Automatic annotation (TrEMBL), chain A:
Transmembrane segments: none annotated. Keywords: Nucleotidyltransferase, Transferase. It comes from the Bacteria. Residues 177-309 form the THIF-type NAD/FAD binding fold domain. Gene3D superfamilies: NAD(P)-binding Rossmann-like Domain. It comes from Devosia salina. Pfam families: ThiF (PF00899). This is ThiF family adenylyltransferase. The keyword Ribonucleoprotein does not apply. One of its GO terms (molecular function) is nucleotidyltransferase activity.
Automatic annotation (TrEMBL), chain B:
This is Multiubiquitin domain-containing protein. It comes from the Bacteria. Residues 23-78, 92-155 form the Multi-ubiquitin domain. InterPro entries: Multi-ubiquitin_dom (IPR027802), UBQ-conjugat_E2_E (IPR025701). It holds the Pfam family Multi_ubiq.
Length: 456, 366
């Protein structure tokens, strides 16, 4: 099944676009989006930069017509040519006409052709409704093709489909309409073990059209107490965990839905396979994998849901006692605070983890010498805690796609629960310090994700 | 224009020889029994006569075409004077940068288009032909205006680009010496390099420092550099660093390599000069580069051989020894303070080496 072609617009860019295209006078307005490309197979254009065409510079602006100076095209060409960015010309239809008019077609025939003459890339045009809905189309050899989906990942994840009307309301959560829309969306799940396997199970049962599972490890006897669908036979023959997931997926969803990637996410091929998805669920116990997820989220404009579980213990009169039983779910969207901003990992912790994984003796010694602050060990978690956290993570994704909370989603950037204290805490997006130097939508720039280790 | 200067050494009243071509543009030597032929005589001497109104153009050495009227005496300087005989039955239209010009002949040269449109020397003339890639038009290139769709010329600023390793350099001239290209990209030509010129679809060609690279070559990609001295087959190819690191190291003049050793990843710089005051003047400097670099920090540094101060004193927090590729290195436990934590957006090998240099200087600047 071919995946829907998509234009992904960060929430901040979408808000800026809407404010500029609907200045309140009821007349059409125009802007230009420069877009990079996601590096996978699927056509995913990533809005990297917004160039507004000032209202005062337009020769004509009426409720159903606009004429604007071509020098802004040149501006876009100058900025986009080196990286081969796609130029998408956007204008508003204040009347809410969710289709391209014959005037739009005639205008494209001239302008898009000029863009193609300037440099070869996918160029196109788009229209925006007062509701914020966008329809975009790209040209190849003079033929326009609508992009199937325009997606805006923010506090809520807005989806605008080319084959639906302009008042696109998100389907109601937990209905068959929700399942129908899920079938057109795809999720990358990093990790297929304790928290990954119940996450994959839920996403498949919720009808997601494609679930890519990245996991390099194989089944062992010690996994049988917490990885769904693993069997004694799998442990005996050391079946790769993603093959276990594939077998289960095919038994109830048929072929072609679950895509097994038997690699570490620190592998170029795994990143490329993941870049074709819409969302990332990060079900891992290493910081390096979270770092890669964080970079993918920013570079390929993918919302991330990162989950972690921990059961800290303490010594009390020579006995080990449970200090707490905790789960954490973070929702990160491109342009918001990153996992790095939230302190989920640091340069020091990544370096310490590299030593721990590659030179354990040196790591132990450095901890002893006090060079590395003791890291919180992720204790072998248990299936009941894993499933609770995994369910919270999957519900988080649904809440963003099909809002059902009483309060705005921005209040739930992080959910932290303690089973010992029987408490659940929420941290709002605004409470996290945002690094202002994150570059969004770098797309297929090399080396992949700016990491020499992922270079071609 | 008529020319009375007797260039060459033609006796008067004798036969002259000139080069004439018809519409096929095959120039042939033709004799004319008149040292001062008119346009009409030259047209008559051409073997291929067009059906209508022959029209003569003088083809100057720099590529300019000068119309010679039927009654006008053609200036003859030399046996290699070239004339094109074409037809003047209609004017041809061409556009340069959107401006329209009429030209009375079927053929035009780059030089003539430049003159017509007054194009500055530093601009390059381009021809846009439908359904074909745009081409550069040189001064002496002839363009047939009768070909359908040929008419649109435009000008671009002439800069030529080539990649050297992974740095793009620009040149104002269409050719550049390998040596100059390397200098521009920050590589030291004095270092021993194997230099390969890579052109799409062709095998790589090894070139020398004085080789002239023609930047107009179709499909030209890059100059690739490989150090001549490859130690243990591990020069710079254990793993990649950031582009900025590799460019910095390349222009530093150091010999360096990246090495994978028992799961650990090292950048090793040979002959790293030390400030005076140590037991050695230079060391091999090793930095550990985690696989998640630059997200992960570089911490500490390692030197071989083991250093003492010149007066024989030991140096604090350098007791730990490790081996990399069978060589013993001394670990300097020097870390970033809380005040200056590693920043993945800014920090790299170069910034870490400034900390290394600071740590070394502190030991000897008592």
């Amino acid at each position: 099944m071919t995946q829907p072609s998509a234009l992904v617009i960060p929430a901040g860019v979408h808000a800026g676009l809407k404010a500029h295209l609907f200045p309140g006078d009821g007349c059409e307005a125009a802007a230009i989006l420069l877009c990079s490309r996601s590096p996978g197979v699927r056509k995913r254009l990533l809005a990297q930069r917004l160039i507004p065409v000032p209202h005062g510079d337009c020769a004509t602006r009426t409720p159903d017509y606009i004429s604007w100076p071509g020098r802004y095209l040149e501006d876009a060409i100058d900025r986009g040519e080196d990286e081969g960015l796609s130029v998408v010309l956007v204008h508003s239809h204040p009347g809410g006409f969710f289709a391209f008019s014959h005037v739009d077609n005639e205008s494209d025939a001239v302008t898009v052709r000029a863009l193609h003459a300037a440099y070869e890339a996918d160029h196109g045009s788009a229209i925006m409704m007062p509701s914020g809905a966008i329809r975009a189309r790209m040209y190849r050899d003079g033929i326009a093709t609508d992009l199937d989906l325009v997606i805006v990942p923010g506090d809520d994840i807005l989806t605008y489909w080319a084959d639906r009307d302009e008042n696109q309301r998100a389907p109601v959560a937990f209905t068959s309409e929700m399942t129908a829309q899920n079938s057109r969306l795809s999720v990358l799940v990093i990790g297929a073990s304790g928290t990954g396997s119940p996450t994959i199970e839920q996403l498949l049962r919720l009808g997601f059209g494609r679930v890519v599972g990245v996991e390099y490890d194989f089944t062992e006897f010690k996994n049988l107490n917490r990885i769904l669908n693993t069997t004694i036979a799998d442990a005996k023959t050391e079946v790769p965990k993603v093959q276990v997931m594939l077998r289960a997926a095919e038994s109830h969803r048929g072929q072609g839905v679950f895509v097994p990637v038997e690699r570490s996410i620190l592998d170029r091929e795994a990143v490329l396979a993941g870049a074709d998805c819409d969302f990332i669920l990060c079900c891992v116990d290493t910081l390096e994998a979270r770092y890669i997820a964080d970079l993918m989220g920013s570079a390929f404009l993918m919302p991330i849901i990162d989950l972690g579980v921990v059961i800290p213990t303490r010594q009390a009169s020579a006995k080990t006692v449970i200090a707490d039983v905790c789960g954490r779910v973070d929702y990160v969207y491109p342009g918001g605070s990153t996992l790095a901003d939230r302190g989920v990992y640091t340069p020091e912790a990544l370096e310490a983890e590299y030593l721990k994984l590659n030179a354990p003796d040196v790591h132990r010694e450095k901890v002893k010498e006090g060079y590395i602050k003791g890291m919180v060990e992720e204790a072998p978690s248990v299936i009941s805690l894993n499933m609770r956290t995994s369910a919270a993570a999957v519900n988080e994704l649904l809440a963003r796609l099909y809002p059902f909370r009483h309060e705005h989603n921005s209040g739930y950037a992080r959910t932290f629960f303690s089973l010992a204290a029987a408490e659940e805490d929420h941290t709002a997006e605004g409470k996290f310090k945002r690094g202002d130097d994150v570059e969004l939508a770098t797309g297929d720039r090399e080396p992949l994700l700016g990491l020499p280790a992922l270079g071609a | 224009m008529t020319s009375q200067n007797a260039a060459g050494n033609r006796p008067a009243n004798s036969t002259i020889t000139i080069q004439i071509a018809g519409l096929d543009l095959n120039f042939k030597a033709v004799s004319i029994v008149d040292p001062t032929p008119t346009g009409a005589q030259i047209a008559a001497a051409a073997e291929v006569l067009p059906d209508n109104d022959p029209f003569v153009l003088r083809f100057l050495d720099d590529g300019e075409l000068v119309p010679i009227l039927a009654s006008e005496v053609a200036p003859i300087d030399d046996v290699n004077d070239r004339f094109v005989v074409t037809s003047a039955d209609r004017a041809f239209r061409l556009k340069v940068d959107g401006e329209q010009y009429d030209w009375p002949a079927q053929y035009v040269t780059g030089k003539t288009v430049r003159k017509l449109a007054g194009i500055a020397n530093d601009l390059q003339l381009m021809l846009s032909v439908e359904n074909e890639p745009d081409t550069v038009i040189g001064n002496r290139d002839l363009v047939d205006l009768a070909v359908a769709g040929v008419e649109r010329f435009y000008t671009v600023h002439e800069t030529w680009k080539i990649k050297v390793q992974d740095t793009v350099i620009q040149s104002d001239l269409p050719t550049i010496k390998v040596r100059d290209a390397m200098n521009k990209a920050g590589f030291d030509p004095a270092q021993p390099w194997h230099i390969f010129l890579k052109v799409a679809g062709q095998p790589k060609q090894e070139v020398g420092l004085d080789f002239d690279v023609d930047l107009r070559t179709h499909g030209i990609e890059k100059l690739r550099l490989t150090p001549r001295d490859v130690n243990n087959g591990e020069a710079g190819n254990g793993f990649r660093l950031l582009g900025v690191d590799e460019a910095f190291l390349a222009q530093s003049g150091w010999r360096w390599r990246t090495v994978l050793d028992q799961g650990r990843r090292w950048l090793i710089i040979d002959d790293y000069r030390l400030p005076p005051g140590f037991s050695s003047t230079a060391v091999a400097m090793a930095l550990e580069i985690p696989n998640t670099y630059p997200g992960a920090q570089i911490d500490m540094f390692y030197v071989a051989p083991v250093l003492l101060l010149a007066n024989g004193n030991r140096i604090g927090a350098t007791e730990t020894l490790i081996t990399i590729g069978g060589v013993t290195y001394q670990r300097w436990s020097r870390h970033r303070g809380q005040a200056s934590p590693w920043n993945p957006k800014i920090d790299n090998v170069r910034t870490h080496l400034t900390l290394v240099d600071g740590a070394l200087s502190r030991e000897v600047n008592q």
